[in-house]
Every structure is written in C-alpha cells, then in structure tokens.
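Retro notes
What went well: the complex prediction finally ran end to end.
Inputs used:
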Amino acid sequence: MSPALWIVLGLVLVVIVYAVWLYNRLVRLRTRTDDGWATIDVQLRRRYDLIPNLVQTVQGYAAHERELFERVTEARTRALAASDVADHVTAENAVTDGLGKLMAVVEAYPELKADEHFLALQEELVGTESKIAYARQFYNDQVRRLNTAIDTFPSNLVARTFGYEERAFFDIDDPVTQPVQIELGRND
Amino acid sequence: MHEQIAANKRRSVLLVVGAFIFFGAVGALLGYLFGTGITGIVIALVVATVLSVTSYLYGDRLVLASSRAREVTADEEPRLHNLVEGLAIAAGIPKPRIYVVPEQAPNAFATGRDPEHASIAVTQGLVATMNRVELEGVIGHEIAHVLDRDMLLGTIVATLVGAVVLMSEFLMRTWFWGGLGGRRGSDNNGGPVALIFFAVGFALMVLAPIAGEIIKRAVSRNREFLADAQGAMLTRYPPGLASALRKIAASPTAMHSANNATAHLWLNTPSRFQGDKMGPLEKLFQTHPPIQERIQRLEEM
C-alpha cells in the first residue's frame, strides 16, 4: 500500500476514535442529567409527603383557615399528577406559593410555633426546600452541559445521528426561587 | 478542579513512596548497626506496607477516632443532616457520613479516601454557635475538600507523617519516664533497649520539624482559598462562610484534642491555646492562611 493510503486510513481511525469519545461523553452527560432529575423528583415527593402532616398539625391550632388548607392540598394533588418538566414547574409554583402562605399564617400562632412536632416538621420542610433548590442547581447545570454538547460542533453531528434532544431547564418563578423563608437556627 | 484532583492523587502516591524509602533506609541503617543484614529492611518494608495500606483504607477512622468523633443520626441532628445532604446533592456526590466532635471550639473537617467513602466531622461548638446559613457555608467548604480529594491527601498526610510525629513523642516519653525510673533506683533500666528508644526517639524528634515542613508543602495554603471559593459556588452565598469564619476567629475557646498530625485537616487551625495565641510547635505546623484574609476574599466574591 502506498504511504498516502496509510495516512488516509490513519485519519479515518482518528476520526472514528474521536466520534466514539464524543458519543460516550454524550451518554455520560445524559445519565448525569437523568440522575439530576431523579434527585429532584425524590425531594419533591418528600415535600409532598410532608404536606398532609403539616396541614394536620397547623389545623389543630388554626382550624378556621380551611380555605388555605384546601388550596395547599389541592396544589399537592395536582403536583403529584405532573408528568413532564413543564407540568412539574407549574404545579411546583402553586405548592410553593401555598406553603409560603401557610407559613405566614403560622406567624400568628405563638403556641403553634412552640409545638415540638411542628418544629420538627418545619426543620424537615426547610431542609427539603433547600435540597430541592440544590437538586435544581445540579440538574440545571447538567442540562446546560448536555444542551451545549448537543448544540456545538462537532458533538452536534454525533448527537443528531443518535437522536439526542435538548432538555428543559427546571426554572421556577422568580419570587419563589427563594425557598420558603422561615427564620430558623438555634441562636436566632 | 480536575487538575486539583490529579495533583492530590499524585501527591498521595509520592507520600507513600516517600514513606517506603524512609522506612527502608531506617531499616537498612538498623540492620547495618546490629549486623542482622537484610532482616532490618524486610521488617521496615513490612511496616511501611502496613502503614500505607492502613492509612489509605482506615485513615479516616483513625483520624476520626483520634478526635473522639461520634457518628450522629438524622434524628439527633436533623439540621446538620439536611444541610450535608443538600450540599452533597448540589455537588452530585453521595451523602457523606456525619460525625460530631465533643469540643466547644467551633471547627470542622472532612476525611476519607474518595467521595463514596467520605466523612464530615463538626464540633459541638460549631453546631451550637452557627445559624443555618453559616453552618451551610462551613459544610460547603468541607464538601469542596471532598470533591477535590484534599481529604485523601490530608488523611494520608495525617496518618503517615503524623505517625512519625506521634512515634517520636511516644518514644521520647518512654525514654523520659524510663530515665526517671532509673534515677529512682531500679537500676537495670538503663540497658541497651532504653538507649535504642532514646536514639530512635531523638532521631524522630529531629525529624519532626522536617515532617512539619513536608505537611506544609504537601497541603498548600492555597487549597483553603480554593475550597472557600468552591464551597461558595455550591451554596451560592459567600457571606455565609465569611460570617462563620468571623465567629470562629472571635471564639475564645481552645481546642483540647488539637494535635499537630491532624491540624491541617481542620477548617481553621485548631489551637490548644486561647484566642489568636499559638504554641511554638503549632506555629511550625501552620498550614492555614490567616483567617482574616479568607474572610476578606469571601467578601470580595
């Protein structure tokens, strides 16, 4: 074989190895993104599990806030039924809004704020809120990387060949980007 | 960050190789002095192997045990568990195990060989004095050490180089008390064994400052700045850690279990002395940048 043929063969080999590397990178990014979504899902579910408990506890002290309880419970039911990212985002906003109002109501009941059961629930809720925020941060980071890889040359060629699609970010309305603000902490 | 991880792994291997050479040389020297030939080297290399494997596999447990840390459950410390879990999620690593050290001085450290085998320890004082945001800042800093494998290098440094420091202290003390006993009258105490203890202990004591130098070179002060910055990237709130460091700087409480072998692992240099004061040996082992400078950099972020 002539040297020119060897060079061509060599180049083809380099291209193939590079394409395989790009493909594996895409797979890795997609797996990380899926993991990120799974984590968000776990934390959201944990929060939905907390809501009935929380409503029940608050009800014991503030029975006449019935309308608010119903709203939160309803938002929770809708959120549980959400299927894709966009659905989750809308449902989440309703849940977060409702919980925010619920926690504002609590401020008016000193005995409730001293209830040990309620305090434990509150810590769980605040903890879960911040875990959702962190999971969102991680997920959006992974989506950004995946989408960039899908959009940019040359990995876009590989992505198109294997049918990779861009993922949606998990963005929440600005006022609720902040988790429910409750002053906690042993020394404040 | 990937360079940081690679550099930490490389340094860890270098340290283990260094330990082998060191113990091999000591073994060869003893073998030569006592005319036992190759036996000395063989024993020394076995000791080096055992030490290296132990520090890699069980270094975290040794470090935790030496600070009397106790693992806590989510029921005992819900806030701490929630914060650690949240930041582990943000960093994309499994949740580390959580320990509490019975000390009133606010401080924390991370140990373990990789993110799958990581532990974070905080003092009782830290949990008691920090609010949620400050505690979050501190945990973020420790999670950054986990991600960077600073804790792998730090743990190996603590157990390998620390072993030399601890051994020298032990041998010198043994010789010292043995010597006192001799003066009290039990006169068959000053035999060759005591002499060897003294010789080896003395040699190790000379080596201790060198060990301190090794620790300082291995764990550069820059990694504390780096972990501060990375922690702030995780929490997205640099003032949290800045406020925590300010509280730590202002805390007058001394740390009782502070020792030079593990000092570099902590969030801020633990001191057996109160406030800003430091012992002469502690100064020698100084591995942290001044806390005021760290606060300033966090405030500028």
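What we learned: Strands of chain B lie at 70-71, 97-101, 108-112, 118-123.
What to try next: split runs per interface for comparison.
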